Amino acid sequence: MTTYRFDGMHVTDHTFELPLDHANPNSASLEVFAREVVAVESRDRDLPYLVFFQGGPGFGAPRFERRDGWLERALRDYRVLLLDQRGTGLSTAISARRLAEFETPEAQAGYLSHFRADAIVRDAEAIRRALLGPDGTWSILGQSFGGFCVLRYLSAAPEHLREAFVTGGIPSLTRPAEDVYRATYPRVREKNRALFSRYPHLQGIARAVADALLESAVHLPNGQRLTVEQFQQLGIMLGGRRGREAIHYLLEGAFERVQGKQMLSDAFLYRVLGALDYHTHPVFSVLHEAIYCQGEASSWAAARVRSEFPEFDYRPGEAFLFTGEMIYPWMFDQYLDLRPLQAAAEILAAKTDWPRLYDVDRLASNTVPLAAAVYFRDMYVDVDYSLESAERIPHAKTWVTSEYEHDGLRAEGAKVLGQLIRMVRE
Known about the structure:
Elements: E1 2-6, E2 9-19, E3 29-39, E4 49-53, H1 69-74, E5 79-84, H2 96-99, H3 105-112, H4 117-132, E6 138-143, H5 145-156, E7 161-167, H6 177-198, H7 201-215, H8 228-232, H9 243-251, E8 255-258, E9 261-264, H10 266-275, H11 282-287, H12 301-306, H13 331-334, H14 342-349, H15 360-364, E10 370-375, H16 383-390, E11 396-401, H17 408-411, H18 413-425
Parallel strand pairs: 4-5, 4-6, 6-7, 7-10, 10-11
Antiparallel strand pairs: 1-2, 2-3, 3-5, 8-9
């Protein structure tokens, strides 16, 4: 355990050794890291904990450089516990090199199957007992996929929760992955319309980039060939408040003239490599569709549903569209660092015995105060499905707003969290 101070915060770093499979305490162990933050002036106060579940899956908790945003608001009332979910951050990491230690793809897939929301909540419960004892309670906050973890927590151990907050992450309780993507593609199409309406000249640049990728082999700085399909995946940025501007400034420097010929610039290729960070977050790639699965296989749902939206298949001379938060089987062939996981990804996509994540009956008798920000124009999480789920949970209050995109907690965190706290306390 390490402690230190900066910018008016007292920080304690915790590491917990936990079983890979909580149903089998004798299974292999892993480490889960959690960073406890309390305002210096409140260090000796008996404040309740607020546990933060990050979006993803496969991303560590935020690393704050200063006391601001939603953290500043939270520190008025809580000790904040920033959880690096298993497989992320300073917890036992998942990487292609780490998974290469397993002898077979089946062993890789078996290991990875223990990294969904149900296991993350079991980790949190073990940490709660270590910090607060068997009967201690705390509050939880989930952003995006973190909201999936919150609803899992309300299904599995609500008796240990004081209150729960969700931002941009109320999942459907029963719908399969196909329904999720069937609702997602039209929202992504609308985000493209908004992008090219604001910056009409970008359509020509995007088509020129796609045509250049079709005409000859272009390689990213890591040696990976850049394809049109990968280029389209930059559209994942369109779900954030500054997403349109980010793509605008990325594309404006796409080309440079070399020996009298227009070529994709080195600066552009480096920035694309940084934006397409699937190689550094393999959990996101192999388990993204699995977060929706409850007793059924995903069977590459995003790829199957895409056939219903042929406008996303680029052809020279036609309009170009970016895609969004979708995982496709071809990624495990094209992305160099995902290739070692291809067979395991296929096994997980065909897995039909995923445990149910949400207990609909238990949620129907919920007594824990729940406040959720539902973003009306959220590209990643469908507003109708979120409200459909919230209506089935007593003591759930929703704040539907078009003021923010999916990243409202990061963009205006103090306001967003403050609103949710007021909703719970009213």
